[in-house]
Write a structure and sequence with these properties.
The protein is of the alpha+beta class. It contains 12 helices and 4 strands; from the N terminus they run αααααββββααααααα. A hairpin with a 2-residue loop joins strand 3 (about 190-195) and strand 4 (about 200-215). Helix 1 (about 5-35) runs antiparallel to helix 2 (about 40-70) and helix 6 (about 220-255) runs antiparallel to helix 7 (about 265-295). The radius of gyration is 28 Å and the shape is elongated.
Length: about 375
């Protein structure tokens, strides 16, 4: 079992801090892309990803972090929130995964198969690229919205009994743990006795308290084996890993295969090629971070498949939640910091702004169209 201190630190403090940082950065990114005058599919996909990541950060904070930081929230509010926040966190996490794939698909056709992208307009539509993954995320996680519900149970109200009471000498406290027993005493008469951890308490009443109840299908062996174990492992980990690695590898190979020497007359093409290579490397970095942050969640699934409890390794579940939060917090930041346009907006006096004005020259734009190896409407932007 994870100690309460470790869980408080990892799933409480650290996860909450990264959630706040991620929400702040994602909100900034939404405003940044929303105010762009010339939006492209790439921009709109990043904006959608930022919104999806923000939704996950908020819902996971209500599900995990705040409950570890606030006793009042955990005792009185969490039971009403988690039946909704947990499935939303799962849907948004799956949505974030497939939106990352959508970004990679857009980059793949823009760089590797630009003419195919030009002939198929849907490949330049952010709606067509993002919509299937979002719909799949909702449908795939739909059972989770019916898995939990809030119920009320009768919880005993306890009063401590002094351990020197004479009638306790005749009772085997070790054999009465967590059970209510009616006993008769000389002074108090008939009382109800409850023993917890070998400590006796008198039950003086009952109070209705909220609790979480799982749906009956959650205990079905077939449901657990097929959906919870295998399908989640397949569609949330194995397939995304394979697609991201394959497409980003193809993008990078295509870019490094382009001619390394570019004449002075083709300075714009050289800038374009270097920018495409930089974006390809950033995409590979995104995949590496994605794999690192998502790989740890494979272990609990494998443990369950092998018949072991998910908590076999102490602290693995809180750490897995923390890594997923970090992934949603930095996913957009990597793209943003690699954008020369972003730097020019942050630093109005930067030299990149002058380069950008020169690249907007119509005559130079004509030269870009001659670079047929990577030219496409998306690639001919001054920045991404």
């Amino acid at each position: 079992m994870v100690s309460s201190t470790s869980q408080l630190l990892v799933e409480g403090v650290l996860m909450f801090i990264f959630s706040l940082i991620g929400i702040f950065l994602n909100i900034i990114s939404v405003f940044y892309f929303a105010q762009l005058k010339h939006q492209r599919a790439f921009h709109r996909l990043l904006l959608t990803l930022a919104l999806m990541d923000t939704l996950h950060l908020i819902s996971s904070a209500f599900t995990f972090s705040i409950a570890n930081l606030s006793y009042t929230y955990a005792s009185h509010t969490w039971h009403y929130i988690v039946p909704y926040s947990l499935p939303i966190a799962q849907s948004s996490m799956t949505g974030s995964v497939y939106l990352t794939i959508s970004l990679t698909v857009e980059r793949y056709f823009s760089v590797v198969k630009p003419f195919y992208q030009m002939r198929n307009r849907w490949l330049r539509s952010s709606l067509c690229l993002a919509f299937p993954g979002i719909v799949f995320s909702l449908l795939f996680t739909l059972p989770n919205y019916f898995m939990l519900k809030t119920v009320y149970i009768e919880d005993p109200v306890l009063k401590a009994i002094p351990t020197n009471e004479s009638f306790l000498e005749e009772i085997d406290l070790a054999g009465m743990n967590n059970s209510v027993t009616n006993i008769t005493t000389k002074l108090a008469g008939s009382i109800q006795l409850l023993v917890r951890d070998s400590v006796p308490f008198q039950v003086i009443g009952f109070a209705s308290v909220p609790a979480i109840q799982f749906a009956d299908f959650r205990s079905n062996g077939t449901y657990i084996t097929v959906y919870v174990m295998w399908l989640h492992l397949l569609f949330n980990t194995i397939i995304p890993f394979t697609i991201l690695l394959a497409l980003n590898t193809a993008i990078y190979k295509r870019l490094v295969s382009l001619p390394s020497s570019i004449s002075v007359r083709r300075t714009t093409e050289g800038n374009l090629r270097r920018r495409e290579i930089r974006l390809a490397r950033i995409s590979l970095l995104i995949v590496i971070i994605f794999i690192i942050c998502h790989s740890l969640k494979i272990l609990p699934s494998i443990f369950e498949i092998l018949g072991y409890p998910p908590e076999l390794i102490p602290g693995i579940l809180p750490l897995s939640h923390l890594l997923l939060t970090i992934n949603c917090s930095v996913n957009f930041l990597i793209y943003y910091l690699a954008s020369g346009r972003a730097l020019s907006r942050l630093l109005p006096g930067s030299s990149y702004r002058a380069q950008r004005r020169s690249s907007d020259n119509p005559n130079q734009s004509l030269i870009v169209t001659q670079y047929s190896e990577v030219s496409s409407p998306e690639n001919m932007e001054t920045s991404f």
